Amino acid sequence: MYVEVLVEIKNKHLDRTFTYSVPKELESEVDLGKRVSVPFGKQSLEGYLMGIVKKPDFETKEIESILDEEPVLNKEMMELGNSVKDMTLSSLSSCYAAMLPKALKASKKIQMKKKMVSFLKLCFPIEEIESLCTETQKKILHLFESKDIVYKKEANKVSASALKTMLKKGWLEELESEIYRYQKGEVEKKERKKLFKEQQIAYETIQKSLNQSGTFLLHGVTGSGKTEIYLELISDVIKLHKTALVLVPEISLTPQLVHRFSECFDRIAVLHSKLSDGERYDEWRKIIRKEVDIVIGARSAIFAPLENLGIIILDEEHSESYKQESTPKYHAREIAKIRSATHHCPLVLGSATPTLESMARAQKKVYTYVPLTKRALDLEMPEVTLVDMEEEIKARHPILSRELECKIIEKLNKKEQILLLLNRRGHSTTITCSNCGFTYRCPYCDITLTYHKSSNQLRCHYCGYTIYKSDTCPKCKEESLNFYGLGTEKLEDYLEEVFPTAKVIRMDKDSTTSKGAYEKIIEEFEEKKYDILLGTQMISKGLDFENVSLVGILNADQTLNIPDYRSNERTFDLLCQASGRSGRNKKKGEVIIQTFMKDSYILQCVKNHNYINFYKYEMNIRKTLKYPPFYYLVTVTIKSKNYENASKESQKVKNFLTHHIEPSSILLGPTTANMFLVNQVYHFEINIKYRFDNQLKNALKELDEIYLSNTLVSIDIDFH
Ligand code: ADP
Ligand code: ZN
């Protein structure tokens, strides 16, 4: 028998299969999608079994072993890998690597073990042996009152010697069994809520098409109850003996969301980045063993090998976290469309602020538009006030405006809770010497260092470079260092100073590094142990706190000034999502947005909760400037440690493209990238805008190949 093996090796030149022969004794184990170990040159490498072929007319080597009992890639996944490869112009093995959990990738050389645990089983009815037991033994016996099997650990805690005796007498029996590492804990079951009229109509529209592929845009304002519609649809899907795949952005994958699903359903697997490799491996095997009906996960869960999919849901479809920023640069929405077609099931894109691309498709009726215009429970949308910070600075209120400060005091008095969004972590963004003008900058990147007070360190938010802050200026040795720019740490200090009795908690990347820290903050805030939750955009999405009636946004326009065609859209999304956290239960919500651009049309749209006006305005800009969704956009980034090389090669790339793509396509650049110098690497960019270009993909592929062997310069191709 002869097989084709995709060898996992970090070299794109070898992104192809090689033929091997299979020794007689291994033939019965051959199955496509399993991993094998093969000799390759002088080494032994791992790869995937891709096909069975006829005897070739050249010499072949033998495969050494077959590593899996069950294939790690099923047929759908093997094909999907090829689609990802085509879409992203990356190697097939990098695609498979992105699709599989770490423990199941080829060549990771980690042996993941199942977690085995000892259980105890009672061999006689309790009544029969109770009278024979000592008091301690009885305690162990009573562990079996509510369950059939008990952890050995649990009984050991009561008394190890009593347990030993009971085992010896044959009253108890010990069993070994695999347990899954990730335990969600018991959740009390609750009825699904009865849908409101608008929800019911939305639900029925999608429900009618459960047996066919098609994309729905569920456009529902924040708090309109999209989750309840998902639950209703999934319940139908399960009745049809099919499965459901639910994608949410990493930061919305809150314990709150998983909890709500667990109240309604049992057989759920959860996949997110905070799981350990072992936990992820276990969750994955639950899916393969068909022990779950529902998978809830972040981006890469789109590859969960659920069979018989009945619905795919992408919640917060506008979230940029659905795009992978490393190779292969896939977009989960595009993968979802492929799977929806394969399984003949609907794809639901849910959002309060859909991407312009999705909204444009809905308007063209490529997607079915399903609106939810009102908040559930007859709640009103929160009232948004824009505060002009120029005035506030004159009035010496540069951090909290007078209006926001008053409102905070009012809410604190009423024992209502407050969210404050400041999308910048650390203490100060710049430290400058007032004597000599020295500023702390990253030696490797084109950026100032951010001061983190808790560790007294300055850190580069691009590359992670870290140094301790000195008391005097490193250059002129004067004690004249000044702190500028507001970060979450400084705001935390400030709040404690201004509202000394308020209990304040901070949530950002720095305060949530340890396992469970994020969950703990949410839980304790929910239990009202804190009055104010301040944080970066982590607090802007998905959270549903019923006692929050004020949201303050501190540097609202910071993202408007970033030179990127999506800046307006990003800002609008962030502000709407953050505002949407206010007034989600009974109490009327209020939002205060502090800005230097009070008259900006974008902010006016946020104030009036007017997505459609924002959409029209921004579409006009995109049309004029030829950006998506009117044009497709590809960015080629040219990178080198040497400035001259980067610059020179950028010109060459431009020349190459000029001659290889269609004349109707627009070539822009080379220019220096937004993040020009990162970790000592210089970045240049070339942008290509096009509508139809049959030559482009081939040109980019060719370009990619030319630069594969270049050790001084590398390129990176990104489809927007
Ligand atoms: P969205 O995801 O659209 O922002 P949620 O699904 O979080 O909104 O719902 C907002 C709030 O409204 C939640 O507290 C939810 O429990 C409540 N809710 C939604 N639908 C109903 C319903 N049909 N009956 C009662 N409460 C509902
Ligand atoms: Zn740096």
Name the hetero compounds present: adenosine-5'-diphosphate, zinc ion
Computed over alpha carbons, the radius of gyration is 29 Å
The largest β sheet comes out as: 7 strands, parallel
Classified by CATH, the class of the largest domain is Alpha Beta
Q: Let me know the number of strands.
A: 31
Q: Considering the protein shown, what is the CATH homologous superfamily of the largest domain?
A: P-loop containing nucleotide triphosphate hydrolases
How many discrete domains?
5
Distance between the termini: 44 Å
Residue ranges: pLDDT <50 for 5 or more in a row? none
Tell me the fraction of residues in β-strands, as a range: 15-25%
Give structural notes.
- The protein is 31% helix and 24% strand.
- A seven-stranded parallel sheet has the order 12-13-11-14-15-10-16, sandwiched between helices. A six-stranded mixed sheet has the order 5-2-1-4-3-6, with no helix packed on it. A six-stranded parallel sheet has the order 17-27-26-18-25-24, sandwiched between helices.
- The chain is globular.
- With 720 residues, the chain is an alpha/beta fold.
- The model has no long low-confidence stretch (mean pLDDT 91).
- α17 packs parallel to α18 and α20 (643-660) packs antiparallel against α21 (696-708).
- The protein has five domains: 2-104, PriA, 3(prime) DNA-binding domain (GIY-YIG endonuclease), CATH 3.40.1440; 116-178; 197-377, Rossmann fold; 383-425 and 487-621, 3-Layer(aba) Sandwich (Rossmann fold); 632-717, Alpha-Beta Plaits, CATH 3.30.70.600.
